[in-house]
Design brief:
The chain is an alpha+beta fold. It has two domains: 70 residues; 139 residues, no CATH class. It contains five helices and ten strands. The strands form two sheets. It has a five-stranded antiparallel sheet. A five-stranded antiparallel sheet has the order 2-10-9-5-7. It is elongated, with a radius of gyration of 26 Å. Keywords: Membrane, Transmembrane, Transmembrane helix.
Length: 238
């Protein structure tokens, strides 16, 4: 059985990106570092002011002792750098894998199985899970409407597809954990699609947003039908 892995050929349709950082754990340390840096500059300017001017406003204003300020600045800078390094360590790596597989649809015909994997070392929690379907010869616009799994299934049924025979789409609610890979690369099922489904549908985009352990939000958009015809002949049903 051959497998097709997602490749970041199109950054708009298949690439992970960080879309939001935690205000508490990222913005606050940076604001504190900026404030301490401004105080350090103020004290550096005061040192070079003449003794006569130090008795006048605003030069007579000493906000914090220089040694204490230096220590606080060093601690703040260390916290910012440590946070950045830790964020890289716990960053989730969302990947997907697809292959022709038997036994996923009621017809027992081979189905194009798509699964998702968190290849990072730490857990990521799903924030949102949206789907967008593009039929053959339809306009594949980046600003097209995204829908929930249930709404997408209803649209596909209205278009004449049968759930369980032509396709399966798995819904993931907010808060579902994607456990980090520990020595394995087993994927969580996203969906399964028949050959006739792939002939009528151009793309099935799944946009997943997850939050990592430091509160940063990451997003990846997968085209579930990407590479579906790499192997022209699907494996025989068995």
């Amino acid at each position: 059985m051959s497998e097709v892995y997602g490749e970041n050929e199109d950054p708009q349709s298949d690439a992970q990106r960080r879309i939001r950082r935690s205000p508490l754990l990222f913005t606050t340390p940076l604001v504190l570092l900026g404030l301490l840096t401004a105080l350090l500059l103020w004290e550096a300017i005061r040192v070079n002011v003449s003794p006569e001017a130090l008795g006048e406003w605003p030069w007579r204003m000493q906000l914090i002792d220089g040694q204490v300020l230096g220590s606080l600045l060093a601690v703040s800078l260390g916290a910012v750098l440590a946070r950045a390094q830790y964020a890289r360590t716990v960053r989730p790596y969302l990947g997907w894998r697809a292959a022709w597989t038997n036994g996923l649809l009621a017809t027992r015909a081979p189905a194009w199985r798509v699964g998702i994997l968190n290849g990072g070392q730490h857990m990521a929690v799903i924030e949102s899970w949206d789907v967008r379907v593009v039929m053959q010869d339809a306009d594949d616009s980046d600003d097209a409407r995204w829908s929930s799994v249930s709404d997408t299934v209803a649209e596909l049924v209205e278009a004449g597809f049968v759930v369980g025979e032509d396709f399966r789409l798995i819904g993931f609610g907010a808060g579902f954990p994607l456990i980090g890979a520990v020595g394995g690369h087993d994927t969580v099922l996203v969906g399964a699609f028949s050959e006739s489904f792939a002939q009528r549908v151009q793309s099935v985009y799944v946009r997943v947003r997850v939050t990592d352990v430091v509160g940063d939000t990451h997003e990846r958009t997968m085209d579930c039908l990407k590479g579906v015809w790499t192997d022209k002949a699907a494996p025989p049903a068995g």
